[in-house]
Design brief:
Blueprint: H1 16-27, H2 31-36, H3 44-53, E1 59-61, E2 64-68, E3 78-80, E4 86-90, E5 95-102, E6 105-113, E7 120-124, E8 135-141, E9 152-158, H4 161-172, H5 179-192, H6 196-205, H7 211-218, E10 235-236
Parallel strand pairs: 3-9, 7-10
Antiparallel strand pairs: 1-2, 2-4, 4-7, 5-6, 5-8, 8-9
Helix pairs in contact: 3-5, 5-6
Length: 239
């Protein structure tokens, strides 16, 4: 009768750690490959590095910088998964408007007076969920002489129904030991799928951030073309 792998043989006990090594050796899987299959370590810095390589909005006017949605090159339209999108920006705005783009016309979905700061702000649309596949735009207003006209238009498109379902199902399958790790997994998942704007939105809107996430949020300033001396945690702009 063969001995158990955990049995002592001539005074030698095969511990679980040694057992794992023995199984890898007998399975023919190289140690390097086994290491590659291990889960990636939890690191907000690693997510930030991915954002650095992705699209950038850059400054638009008077140090205004849009962090999300990210449009990349001029004229490019960002694809967003969340039907209640979040705008993240740096700069002082007095009003936001969300519109649905219908050919050459626009249908307003709401105007929102802002009381944000000159630094980092965020605003999440909580109206009727946006419709998959349709195109929208955030219109940004400041307090200057041209305050009746938007100083910037941030266009984006909601992903199609199939993509929305695939992303939603993928997020539901994520598991983690704690709330912050689960958030990290969600942000990492959205980033890997190319939804950087949604990833940034989740990263900054979920409450009770850890010191590591606060630092990562502050470091989002690298997504702006111009640098600033300080970047406090984004505040929720109140309509």
């Amino acid at each position: 009768m063969p001995k158990s792998l955990f049995q002592s043989t001539k005074g030698f006990t095969l511990t679980p750690c040694l057992l794992a090594i023995a199984l890898l050796m007998t399975s023919g899987m190289p140690m390097a490959e086994a290491n590659r299959n291990q889960p990636k370590p939890f690191s907000w810095d690693s997510v930030l590095k991915v954002f650095q390589k992705g699209p950038r909005q850059g400054g638009t006017r008077d140090a205004l910088c849009i962090i999300a949605p990210l449009n990349g090159m001029p004229g490019q339209v960002s694809e967003v998964w969340n039907s209640r999108p979040t705008l993240v920006w740096r700069g002082n705005l007095t009003q936001l408007e969300l519109v649905e783009l219908q050919g050459k016309t626009e249908q307003s979905l709401g105007r929102f007076p802002m009381q944000g700061s000159k630094n980092w702000n965020q605003f999440t649309y909580n109206g009727k969920p946006l419709e998959p596949g349709k195109r929208y735009a955030w219109l940004l207003f400041d307090s200057g002489k041209m305050r009746k006209f938007p100083i910037a238009r941030i266009r984006f498109r909601l992903s199609d129904p199939a993509t929305q379902k695939a992303i939603t199902d993928g997020l539901k399958q994520l598991r983690a030991a704690d709330r912050e790790t689960l958030l990290y997994e969600r942000v990492n998942f959205l980033t890997e799928k190319g939804f950087h704007s949604d990833a940034i939105a989740e990263m900054v809107t979920v409450s009770h951030p850890t010191p590591e996430r606060i630092k990562a949020i502050q470091d989002l300033r690298i997504l702006c073309q111009d640098q600033i001396t300080s970047a406090p945690t984004p505040t929720t702009a109140r309509p």
